[in-house]
Design a protein that fits this description.
The chain is built from one helix and 17 strands. The protein is mainly β.
């Protein structure tokens, strides 16, 4: 896999400098599940710095580090940028998004989230909906033999959150903006959907300085269209997969940790391409 030289290093340094330049002590307000889409956004003027470690096992193993810097413009509007730091990827591996807020492909992603609906049926509970729009810029020239191009991503999540129960459903669509013509390549469009159910056990419902732990069950499905090389569909590409698994979210003051595995429970691929059986993520967050 060929990467554009120096890009990852420059962007990562930029994230670190931006984080170090701010000394605001803000508590965590934007947090949710790992793999699925959710509605929480950062508080007004709050920053978050995430550092995700993600991997896949099966026919196409992958390992990647990915930092993400987020900023809350208002309590309902946030911006984020994440950059890839690939550790290991096999040629021909099936691309995937994997995390709700960060892709597993070697793309630089700019993402905007806007929570456009919120009602509070009772104290400490809310129904809300958040829309996301983003821009993906690949740092590699070829991916599974297909030439890359910048892409657009849009997503919508809605659900319920209280001090005890959490439930979200969402959907995402990504398309790479490739040229047309007889020699055009195009990475297959991605459609992702998710459902998340969470529970906060009684011992962890107290406020800081007590720790806060939440348990989630996440269901994530994705459908990829076939890749196209020189206007010819690649037969061994694309298909439909569903993953299910438990995850944890732990919060303490300005720090957070989340992660867990999801396991493949359904697969209907278009060909004999390599796939993955387990996906695993550990994400560390600091709010400031």
């Amino acid at each position: 896999m060929k990467r554009r030289p120096g890009m990852n290093r420059t962007l990562v340094v930029g994230l670190i400098v931006a984080a170090a330049a701010v000394s605001r002590d803000a508590r965590a307000s934007g947090h949710g599940p790992v793999f699925g889409l959710a509605t929480p956004t950062l508080g007004r003027g709050a920053f978050s710095l995430d550092f995700a470690v993600m991997g896949r096992s099966g026919d196409s193993p992958m390992a990647m580090l990915r930092p993400m810097l987020g900023y809350g413009v208002t309590e309902d509007l946030q911006f984020s940028v994440s950059v890839p730091m690939p550790l290991y990827t096999e040629q021909g591996a099936n691309p995937t998004r994997m995390m709700g807020m960060m892709p597993a492909e070697p793309d630089v992603e700019l993402l905007v989230g806007y929570r456009f609906h919120r009602t509070s049926p009772k104290v400490g509970a809310r129904f809300e909906s958040t829309a996301y729009g983003g821009f993906d810029y690949p740092t590699d020239d070829l991916r599974a033999g297909t030439r890359t191009a910048p892409g657009l991503v849009g997503a919508l999540a809605t659900g319920y959150a209280s001090r005890t129960i959490y439930a979200w459903v969402g959907g995402l669509y990504r398309r790479y903006m490739t040229p047309t013509g007889e020699t055009a390549d195009h990475l297959g469009d991605l459609t992702m959907y998710s459902a998340v159910l969470g529970y906060r056990p009684p011992p962890f419902r107290r406020d800081y300085p007590h720790p806060d732990w939440r348990i989630f069950v996440e269901v994530v499905g994705e459908h990829r269209a076939r890749d196209v090389i020189a206007s010819t569909p690649v037969l061994d590409s694309g298909g439909h997969q569903i993953f299910v698994g438990p995850t944890l979210l732990g919060l303490y003051g300005s720090w957070g940790i989340s992660g867990g595995p999801v396991f493949r429970v359904y697969e209907n691929l278009n060909g004999t391409q390599r796939n993955d059986k387990v996906r695993l993520v550990a994400n560390f967050t600091y709010w400031f």
